[in-house]
């Protein structure tokens, strides 16, 4: 049975685009109907494959943005300049089109409703995508585990999931903090700068809270935040990381 499940996850299958939503000027959410999808855990990713008319193929990994509810899946893709796959997904793909996918993939960077203790999520840019899946899974499960999201983003116009995050912020169990690095909105008390030890101390769960912390984003961002967490006394075994970009994995 286990071998069958693994083989199924490693087999390419074709989904159909059922909806596309613009998140920002460079990011788009794609909803897919995948009849043979086996289900997934919040934080997992999948592979997308495109095939050109001449037979050339290109594939990339993308985090799954949705919690598994038994009906369809969603990806949120940020366009990468000069990319082979993301420009097509963001600018060309339309409702009704087929899309080859394979997955789900990953077993470490996942959140499960039965996990004990607080949940700290820290995302940089499009690294918020798998964290959004975790927040959605948290809500769908009716979890009472305290959860916090620290979202590092260049400017307000770059925020992915604006309306969804507003809805999440209304929950008594979830606190959301934005760390703007280039341009802050009017009235923001913190000047634009990267996440630092002071911010983590003021808005994130502390080591004594024994949170499970998930950090996702570009490799330099993830390494910096993970180092700050460990230096502050967090147990490295409870800090889970996911990198993307030229030297990382899912986007």
> What proportion of the residues is helical, as a percent range?
10-25%
- CATH architectural type of the largest domain: 3-Layer(aba) Sandwich
Total count of strands: 11
Strand portion: 25-35%
CATH topology of the largest domain: Rossmann fold
Low-confidence stretches: none
**Could you give me the name of the CATH homologous superfamily of the largest domain?**
Nucleotide-binding domain of ferredoxin-NADP reductase (FNR) module
Order of helices and strands: HEEEEEHEEHEHEHEHE
Number of helices, where a helix is a run of at least 4 consecutive DSSP H or I residues: 6
Number of separate structural domains: 2
Please give the radius of gyration in angstroms: 18 Å
CATH class of the largest domain: Alpha Beta
Question: What's the shape?
Answer: globular
Q: Gap between N and C termini, in Å? A: 30 Å
Protein model, in words:
With 251 residues, the protein is an alpha/beta fold. It folds into two domains: 2-105, Beta Barrel (Elongation Factor Tu (Ef-tu), domain 3), CATH 2.40.30; 119-244, Nucleotide-binding domain of ferredoxin-NADP reductase (FNR) module (Rossmann fold, 3-Layer(aba) Sandwich). Helix content is 22%, strand content 31%. It contains six helices and eleven strands. The chain has helices at 2-9, 86-91, 128-140, 162-169, 197-203, 219-231, and strands at 13-22, 27-33, 45-51, 57-63, 73-78, 98-105, 119-124, 147-153, 174-180, 212-218, 239-244. The strands form two sheets. Strands 4-3-6-1-2-5 form a six-stranded antiparallel sheet. The chain has a five-stranded parallel sheet with strand order 9-8-7-10-11, sandwiched between helices. The longest helix has 13 residues, at 128-140. The model has no long low-confidence stretch (mean pLDDT 93).
């Amino acid at each position: 049975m286990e071998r069958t499940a693994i083989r199924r996850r490693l087999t390419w299958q074709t989904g159909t685009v059922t909806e596309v939503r613009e998140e920002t000027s460079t990011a788009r959410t794609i909803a897919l109907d995948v009849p043979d999808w086996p289900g997934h855990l919040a934080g997992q990713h999948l592979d997308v494959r495109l095939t050109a008319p001449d037979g050339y193929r290109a594939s990339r990994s993308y985090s799954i943005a949705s919690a598994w509810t038994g009906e369809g899946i969603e990806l949120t893709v940020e366009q990468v300049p000069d990319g082979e796959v993301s420009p097509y997904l963001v600018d060309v793909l339309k409702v009704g089109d087929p899309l080859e996918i394979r997955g789900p993939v990953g077993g470490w960077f996942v959140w499960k409703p039965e996990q004990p203790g607080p949940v700290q999520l820290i995302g940089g840019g499009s690294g918020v995508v798998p964290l959004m899946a975790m927040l959605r899974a948290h809500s769908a499960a009716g979890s009472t585990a305290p959860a916090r999201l620290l979202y590092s983003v260049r400017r307000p116009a770059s925020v992915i999931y604006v309306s969804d995050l507003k809805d999440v912020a209304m929950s008594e169990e979830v606190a959301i903090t934005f760390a703007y690095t280039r341009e802050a909105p009017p009235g923001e008390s913190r000047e634009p700068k990267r996440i630092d030890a002071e911010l983590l101390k003021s808005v994130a769960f502390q080591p004594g809270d024994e949170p499970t912390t998930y950090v996702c984003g570009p490799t330099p961002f993830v390494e910096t935040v993970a180092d700050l967490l460990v230096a502050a006394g967090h147990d490295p075994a409870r800090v889970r990381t996911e990198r993307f970009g030229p030297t990382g994995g899912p986007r």
